[in-house]
Amino acid sequence: MEEQIKQLNEMQKAEVLIEALPYIQRFNRKIIVVKYGGSAMVDEELKRHVIQDVVLLKLVGFKPIIVHGGGKEISRWVSKAGMEPKFINGLRVTDEATMEIAEMVLNKVNKNLVQLVNELGVKAVGISGKDGMMLKCEKKLSGGQDIGFVGNITEVNPKVIYDLLEKDFLPIICPIGFDEHFQSYNINADDAACAIAREVHAEKLAFLTDVEGVYKDFNDKSTLISELSVDEAKAFMAEGGLGGGMLPKMQNCVDAIENGVSRVHILDGRIPHCLLLEIFTNRGIGTAMFADGAERYFHETEH
Predict the structure, then answer these.
(1) pTM here?
(2) What Rg value do the Cα atoms of the chain yield, rounded?
(3) CA-CA distance, 176 to 190, in Å (whole number)?
(4) Residues of the chain with pLDDT under 50
(5) Which of 25, 107, 219, 230 has the smallest CB count inside 10 Å?
(6) Of 59, 31, 12, nearest to 281 (Cα)?
């Protein structure tokens, strides 16, 4: 009996690998941008799972790029410095002292992620948007209010990213940019991931979040939307059915697809190996958004 169970388990493993094969073939040598944030950055076990996923993507032929935030860690260090973290409309008020802390913390987080990737045998390079003059920005206002050194990206120079990918490095990017006077700015990590994905014409952009995906009714977990076209997403946003935190993320998804990204995924980063489950299985686990008229090749077994 034990031998039969063992054989069954081995067959299940083989079936999983075979199910992944067409996706590996389809996206070989394609760029995938992973926006890494939320609980998956705080929980050490989840962090390891995410890094394992990205390393696997790299080793089976994808060209992954990680863009990460670090908001919870920044708030912790701002409090340590005896200051009160302040937010207006969900955006951090970033004065000069907060900007200095944010840049230090994001670079610390960045090098920690580099180390985790390196430990798994893949060469990673950590950079910020200041490196190679990658992320040029202007001051971002929040509802007309000046919130300090918070940047709105105006230009992306992808040369340093392409150079790293060409030399087989995995780029890990923290969202610090600069303006025309070379002043440092803190940039929302979702905005940075979206802008970078657009500029490098990524095949996929995956947002790791603290929600399972997009719901028709957020209070009813059975209403998770597995796939969504751009037109469907716009209609859904216009209905006002989205919570405040999801609305800008959805807008970023739409902008990315309308600017050349083939497919965008919103995933629950609290689920171990969520990236692999969404990208390499027919059923998937999050919400995938695609251009109107594109083939609905994910979730083929549904319905």
Answers:
(1) 0.88
(2) 20
(3) 12
(4) 298-303
(5) 219
(6) 12
